[in-house]
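Incident review: delayed structure delivery

Summary: a single-chain prediction request sat in the queue longer than the usual turnaround. Root cause was a stuck worker, restarted by the on-call engineer. No data loss occurred. The affected request and its eventual output are reproduced below so the record is complete for anyone auditing the incident later.

Affected input:
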Amino acid sequence: MLPDHLQAVISKIRQQHYAELYEPEADGTTSLSEALNEVIEAFDTNNHISCHRSYVWMALIFTILVEPTIEYYQPSSKYLRQDIINLIESGIEKSFNKSNTSSDIILAKQKIDQLKKMPLSKENKLPSIQVWLEAIDVFEQAIRVLDYEQAKPAILEILDNCLEGYALFPGSQGRRDLFDWWLLNVVPASWLWDYFKSLDDLKILPLPTEIKRHLISVLRSIHAKITTKKETRLTNQVSETSLPQV
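Output delivered after worker restart:
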């Protein structure tokens, strides 16, 4: 269940129109960047650990979604891409264990540098270098999200690359639909550390079905792990408090 304050922000933002999304109804009085910032700020309650986990969850969703863009232009980068995504997954699990993620961040940055240096496909020509650069930047910003101090500006950069930029797909068509999908599906899933239950939740995305299935599978797997760990910790805490005093 989403808290009242987040539901109110979602309702408010949904009713507005944005020139950056190529909406003819936009009158210039509302800014997309301000709207995104308001939503992301709404995650930041007094529980900073919970907030950070939500940012990382959202970063993972977009990292998986932009992977096909990088694969298309750098088909030989499969293992590097998967290593980076695995490190983000590890960061989520470690955050639930309250473990240090600094080693993951260092290793992931090294792999990002390697990814940038890999050659682009000669067969698949870029319509614009912006497409590849913004997809790569999503990976790079996702690593920054693992660092709590950098998480908020990094997740905003990811949203800029995907919702207004070309990391997911180029062109102006479908921008508002993509924004609404983020607002009504990704935001709640990130708050709840939940996963999409069916392909219907992803139908707005112009991506292959196998990519959508992969996203659901990854999120479901991590959700199962962290849910089990949370239940184990709660059980242990109850057991400890139930011990007779000596």
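Verification: The radius of gyration is 19 Å.
Action items: add queue-age alerting; document worker restart procedure.
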